[in-house]
Structures are given as C-alpha cells and as structure tokens.
Design a protein that fits this description.
This protein is of the alpha/beta class and 186 residues long. It contains 6 helices and 10 strands, in the order E-E-H-E-H-H-H-E-E-H-E-H-E-E-E-E.
C-alpha cells in the first residue's frame, strides 16, 4: 500500500497560513534548505493538493520564473503525477494532474490501494485535517519556522478527536527551520 505523507510548514505559534491566508513567511532560503527542498523534488512520488493550494502551485511551477529560480524543484513539481481534490473543478490544466471529485477519504483510500509511488500532501490544510481525522495519513512532516504570526489558521482546524503521534525524526537547518517527522501512534 502507498504511504500518504503530509509535508507542512507551521509558524512557532502553530499556524500554517497567516490571517490573510499567506505563506510567504515559510520561504526563508539558505543553501542547506534549498538542497533539502531540491532533494525532495527529485523523488518519485505523487502530489495531492486541495483546490486552493493547487491553484497557487499551478500558477507558479510551470512558469519560466520557477525554472529560473529553482530549476530542480520546478522540474520535479511539473514531472510528478498530481491529484487535486475539488468538488467544482472539471479539468486540470497543469500537466499530469487528475481531479478527485468524490468523497475525499474514499478517493484517497483508492489512491493508497492502487499501485504507484508514495503520495505527498503539500500545504492544503483542510485536506490534511480531513485525512488525519480519517486515519489516512501515514507520516506527518512538520517544518516549524522561526516566526510568530499571532493569527491565522491552524493545520488541524476542524479535527474533533485526539490524534496521538510518535516522533520518528528531527532535523534542524541553518535558517532556523526544524523538520519534525511523526507517525500515528498505534
């Protein structure tokens, strides 16, 4: 069975977007972080997005500016198969994208049971919240950024039941980011 991995940035006070829905605070670059991001993009995986995150990603990664700024990441983002969960979208313009229109948990179970590489959720907080509550996330990779936002949306907004986690790894970067990896406590 394919693993479902959520890769998420949060502020030190626990928000994944600020009060305006912005995430630009999460893009503090340095050579070590850039190499980490590029190595992730070189992998063979499938990407899963909610509609809002998909629209944001699709408006940037296929552009010449993305290829110039981060060529390895842009190549990976464009090459990898993608799925977008949307009740209103009929067709996706970004290459290698499938639209999931049915019940989210049901559609993701089908993806996990089908042959293929692991699946990574990038951003897409409402998707993460729903799939965590459904017990479908196999690994959570949280990037804690050294910034306090004061207001915003939390990553697990809407989760009603406690979800126990076990930390499996931690890594600190020169730009102050800390990547924490967790698996559901079983």
């Amino acid at each position: 069975m394919r693993k479902l991995i959520a890769f998420e940035h949060v502020s030190l006070d626990g928000y994944f977007v600020d009060a305006n829905g912005d995430m630009s605070w999460a893009h503090k670059q340095d050579p070590e972080w850039d190499e980490f991001s590029a190595s992730n993009a070189k992998g063979d995986g499938m990407l899963l997005f909610g509609r809002v995150t998909y629209d944001m990603m699709a408006s940037f990664w296929p552009t010449p500016a993305a290829m110039q700024m981060m060529p390895t990441v842009a190549e990976g983002m464009n090459r990898m198969p993608k799925a977008v969960a949307s009740r209103t979208m009929d067709k996706a313009a970004w290459q290698n994208t499938t639209v999931l229109k049915g019940d989210l948990a049901t559609e993701v179970r089908k993806l996990k049971e089908s042959p293929g590489p692991d699946i990574a959720i990038l951003g897409s907080g409402s998707i993460v919240s729903q799939l965590a509550q459904a017990g479908l996330i196999d690994e959570l990779q949280v990037v804690v950024n050294p910034v306090v936002l004061g207001k915003g949306r939390t990553l697990f907004e809407g989760v009603k039941d406690k979800i126990g986690l076990t930390r499996t790894e931690a890594r600190t970067f020169g730009n102050g980011n800390v990547v924490l990896k967790y698996e559901p406590a079983r």
